[in-house]
Amino acid sequence: MKKSIFGKKLKRDKNERTALFKSLISALVLNESIKTTEAKAKAIKPEIDKLVTHAKKGTNASMQKIHGSLSHIALDRFISHVAPRFKDRNGGYTRIIKIGGRVGDEAKMVILEWVEKSDAPYVKQVKAKKVKKTVKKETKVKKVKEVKVSKKTIKKAVKKTK
Questions:
Q1: What CATH code is carried by the domain that includes residue 100?
Q2: 3-state DSSP call for residue 32?
Q3: Who wins on pLDDT, 154 or 35?
């Protein structure tokens, strides 16, 4: 018996949908707002509300559910900055602002953002790159003997090639 899927499929299978939701929610946590299509925003909005509610509870089971839905970088920021911001709020943690159609295909675009803004924006930490030491090889140059060539020998060589 075929079962229907709750929510929007977004023309993706289950693994693709979960990866899309994880990346969109992580981007929202890190950037405080994201620009996406209306269908995707409406699809992830209930997921975001559930995650914030779980984070406010603070139990081990709740943290395990959050851990599977966010990237490692976003998880730390979500627990430390986003969840405490909504401790007095019972729902409706995000808002959708319609901004019109996309240039290429006129898809309905929206901005999905938190209702309460953060004071400190996320600063990405960049690791210093390792510098490779390059060792220059010395090239040996062979000495060439100087040979004096007269005009007569050049003329003879030219005649032989003709």
A1: 3.90.1030.10
A2: coil
A3: 35
Task: Give the largest CA-CA distance in the chain.
Answer: 105
Give tens-digit pLDDT for 46-70: 999 999 999 999 899 999 989 988 9
Domain count of the chain? 1
Containing structural domain, residue 36: 14-114
What's this model's pTM, rounded to 2 decimal places?
0.70
* Nearest of 76, 78, 27 to residue 52 by alpha carbon: 78
Residue 143 lies in a domain: no
The residue type found at 42 is: K
Beta-strand pair 94-101/33-37? unpaired
Q: Does 40 have pLDDT greater than 90? A: yes
